[in-house]
Amino acid sequence: MCLRDANIVGEQRGGPGCLLKKDFYDEGPQPIHVVPERLAALVERTGFSKDEICKMYRAFKQHCPGGAATTNDLKPAYAKLFPLGDSTKYAQIVFNIFDKDGDGVVSFADFLVGMASIVRGSADQKLSWIFGMYDLNGDGHITRHEMLAIVSAIYEMVQNSQTIHRAVTRHVDRIFEKMDLDKDGVISKEEFMTSCKNDLTICDQLTIFDDFWW
Known about the structure:
Residues 86-121, 122-157, 167-202 form the EF-hand domain. By secondary structure, the chain is mainly α. Helices cover 56% and strands 5% of the residues.
């Protein structure tokens, strides 16, 4: 069964287009239900074909029957991929970049649009998506603190957190040495894009685990 051609994503509790309200969570765990966007609209927004969207929707619904994912859906998948480490922090970071409106749920449309940026996007769009993952507060710059947070989360997936501090610091120091071109202590989006285009090694270091989401 594929997407309904009748409704628009975001029709959640409270009526059409209504976002989940804060008091929804205060009432305790409740089933999440998100009605998918029209198939034709998703094709237009993402560039995926109807068949591609239908296949992805069926897979999405198997894991998220209500039509939306929470971090609780994502964490077990990462735990299976990285059984020797702690993937909790990284799973939350990946989830946050798909959860653009910060409402705590990722609808199928949210997921599909994020996928499109990586799979169908230009080189600049792909790098922009990766930059947004590291720019935790969305201010247009990557600080050393933000880079440490992401790299630490990656290392924790495969190593004991008590043994990674020195390795993480060295890793971040190398990245900042190459990417902070004006040496002002932060990496701007322009510096990020330029460095990744000029040095594929840097780009590989930044995206090493990104493909585990999709």
